[in-house]
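User: Fold this; tokens only.

Assistant: Input:
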Amino acid sequence: MLSSGRQLLDRGGGSWHILCLKIKQTVVQDARRCEMRFRGNLIVAIAIGIGIAVLGFGQNSEATTYTYNDIYANWPGHFVDARDEIGNPQITDVNGIKVTIDGGYLTQVVIYMDSSIRIPSGWSGITPYDSLFINSNWNGTYADYQSWDYYVLDYTQNTNTDGTLYSVGLSYDYEKAPSHSGWSLRTGHPAGISTGLTSISTPPDFSVVWDGTKITYNFPSGLIEIDGQFVIGYSLWCANDVALTPVPEPTAVLLLGFGLVAVGLGARRLRKNA
């Protein structure tokens, strides 16, 4: 059958040979097109990969400073007093908190004060202190915002000290703002951490500095890694003014949940009507 078919093609003036050449040319052309497409896609993929790497390197290598307003009178879940500030000192309401991340690590936190007097003169009721709370890998939920990873305790009385840096265990207890006769304090509000702490040997470049207008917490790069989102909290021993980077209020989370449910129900109705 093949022989007779070839004879028929030969009778047509070498059609068999021409057909073979055309098939060969088509196969070669298709192979070249595939190779060119592969090379083109490979070049694009390499370019995208290099671009992502460059962008990623740039984000991780450049310092970024985040600025927050002092918007809290009380931390969510710890209501004590509706007043934002009770006496002095007072955290600056606008741009009162600055957080710097460099190469994926926390390197600085600055708390700005409106008052130059951090410790009342003649105070003898309690040894005053400042507290900085750090959640370095917050998962974005209200329930997780107080999962503190690091804590800085600074017994400062209008002077500079290096403070003490701690890691915080899974279980801990707050030190609450005290009550004191003759003083109006935010009594009962978290002002420090009293248990679940492990002291970290004072690393180089770690310091807590008060210059009369702001407290600057400096951390060495490579110590506190920021894995995604974070929460920073601050309180004086009396909690008369407290600071916190924004976290969702429980009611906001609830409303968000209702909103997502409503969106889901609406989408189901649309699909059903379609």
